[in-house]
Amino acid sequence: MRQTRKYKSRKNEKGKNMNQHIEKAKALRAQVPPAGNCAQTILRVYAAELGLSEEQAAAIAANFGGGMKRGSVCGAVTAALMVLGAAGITDAASVQQFQTAFAQKHDGMLCCADLLKANMEKGGNKNDGPQAACFPHWGNKATLSPGILSDTAI
To answer: pLDDT per residue over 89-143, tens digit each?
Structure first.
C-alpha cells in the first residue's frame, strides 16, 4: 500500500519543476484554439510524472473542465487533486489545505461558474470560455498572471 504524504504549499518555492510545469501549461493554453480545457491542461502537464501519455491525461480529464461541464469545482483544481492523489497525498487535512490555499488566492472561490463571473466583473469576456477564469483570471488575457495555473502547480 502506498504511503500517504502531506501536501506542502510551494507558495515561496521557485523550484525548477514547478516553473517548467507553469511554462508548459502556459504554452498549452496559448495554442489557438487552446489545447483542451483547464483540467486537461493541468493533467497533461504532469502526464509524464504520472506514467501517462499526454493523450491519456487529456482523455482522463476531458469531462472535468468547466467545473465538470456544469460550473462546479474548477477543472484545474480537480486535476490538481488528481495529481496530488497520484503522488500519494490523500489525507483529508492536506487536500483541504490545498483547496483552502487555492480559494484564498481567488476571493474564496473554487467553482468554475464563480470564477467565470468574477472574470467578467473584472473586465473579461464571457465568450473567452472557462479558460478566461483560469488563465489569467485577473488581468492580461495573453499571459498567466498569478492565476489558477500557478496556484495548482504542485
So the answer is: 899 998 898 899 888 888 899 998 888 888 778 776 554 544 444 444 333 332 2
Q: Within 10 A of 27 (CB to CB), how many other CB atoms are there? A: 12
User: Which of 52, 48, 50, 18 is closest to 149 using CA atoms?
Assistant: 18
Tell how far CA 93 is from the center of its chain.
20
C-alpha cell belonging to residue 47 = 502526464
d(CA 118, CA 126): 10
Find where cell 489545505 sits: 97
Is-above-0.85 flag for pTM? no
**74 in Cβ contact with 115 (< 8 Å):** yes
CA gap 86, 82 in Å, rounded = 6
d(CA 9, CA 15): 12
139: left (phi over 0), alpha (psi -120 to 50) or beta: left
The backbone torsions φ and ψ at residue 34, rounded to the nearest 5 degrees and listed phi first, read -55, 145
